[in-house]
Automatic annotation (TrEMBL):
Pfam families: DUF3576 (PF12100). This is DUF3576 domain-containing protein. Keywords: Signal. InterPro entries: DUF3576. Residues 1-22 form the signal peptide. It comes from Meridianimarinicoccus marinus.
């Protein structure tokens, strides 16, 4: 009876041999830290599985943009929303006076009330909506958010 190595075993041996040949070549490499560099703590593969996130860290979302997006797009059903990350996913809905159904994903990514804080993806059943339509909806949301803020300041 003779030993005949299997293909996966042979591939494993070749990969290990190839990785072993990638070791140090005998040349000494020293790293010179630059001014202001903080030393990077050593980490291992097991650090990926530890929960090191700070539970006290929260993301801030502009409440006026959030409310305005829900009110302007109220003809669409809300499929999912997460006020902590600023994402609203809406299903297909037909705007009043329109004939084409749209769906939207809104991402409010900053506490500031400006256009950079709002990200909108709008599509119809036949594909992405035109950039002019997306811009018009974004403008409507931003205008409504500004009106909400002005109304709150007058109270």
């Amino acid at each position: 009876m003779t030993f005949k190595p299997s293909r996966p075993l042979l591939c494993t041996v070749l990969i290990c041999a190839g990785l072993a040949s990638c070791g140090p070549t005998g040349q000494q490499v020293t790293e010179v830290p630059l001014a202001g560099d903080d030393p990077v703590p050593d980490s291992t593969l097991w650090d990926l599985f530890q929960n090191v996130d700070d539970p006290n860290v929260t993301l801030e979302v502009n409440r006026y943009l959030w409310t305005a997006a829900l009110e302007v797009l109220d003809f669409m059903p809300v499929e999912a929303s997460d006020p902590f990350s600023g994402v609203i996913v809406m299903g297909y809905g037909t705007p009043p006076g329109g004939s084409r159904a749209y769906r939207a994903t809104v991402y409010v990514q900053d506490p500031a009330l400006d256009a950079r804080s709002l990200n909108l993806a709008l599509s119809s059943r036949s594909g992405p909506a035109s950039p002019d339509t997306v811009r018009a909806v974004e403008d409507a949301i931003l205008t409504h958010a500004r009106m909400l803020r002005i109304r709150d300041q007058n109270l």
